[in-house]
Amino acid sequence: MKYIILYSLFFSTLFSAKVQEDDIELFLLSRYGGDSANVSLFISEDFIYEHTSYVGLGIETRYVDESLLITKVLNDSIQKYLQVGDRIYEHNNKIVDSLGLITNGPIGEKQKLIVIKKGERDFRVMEIPLEEYHFEENKNSFLESVKRYSEKWYDYDLEILNILKKKNTIVVHYRWEGSREENGKIYTFSAIEFYYINKKKDLIDRIVGLWSEKQFRDQFK
Length: 221
Known about the structure:
Elements: E1 3-6, H1 21-32, H2 36-40, E2 43-50, E3 54-56, E4 59-64, E5 67-73, E6 87-91, E7 94-95, E8 110-116, E9 124-129, E10 131-133, E11 136-138, H3 139-151, E12 155-166, E13 169-179, E14 186-198, E15 203-211, H4 213-217
Parallel strand pairs: 1-12, 2-15
Antiparallel strand pairs: 2-11, 3-10, 4-5, 5-6, 6-7, 6-8, 8-9, 12-13, 13-14, 14-15
């Protein structure tokens, strides 16, 4: 069962506005439950999700036919190695799965990939260095990410640790944990997100995410 346990702490001496708990709960339930239609009701047409910087390969993928199909390249610098439509079959001598690429290591460390380039038939062995990336998603991209992320997990729990509000900004601190299969290993991360609300439209204009990607990815070593 996918559910949220709420533990909200309110600091009346610091913040005079009351946090709309039900809205935050429903948004996060919809988001991590893969309900992109409901998530869409909370966010404006100009919505932006600003991701925290991370070290990786700078691509987005979708698991198709026992390979990771590259659906997005985040930076022009990676296009000399990989492009949309390429398929990744192995990463560091391990066959890929629906969880995607789990990269561990410092900037510059090379990752070994077995790839079939778009329009080709033969496998290529490639070594690509890790780099630091920072990227943003618009509304359509974010909604697609909501669906893809949910598809990777069998089950999850989400505990809200704290919610604070001041004027048009809501800060949410939560802990996520999930498993890829029934009774499987549990993976977890903690996140702090800043929600910037458009008061006139009563919609979320921007979310800035701050979470420990290293904490999450280190569990796959």
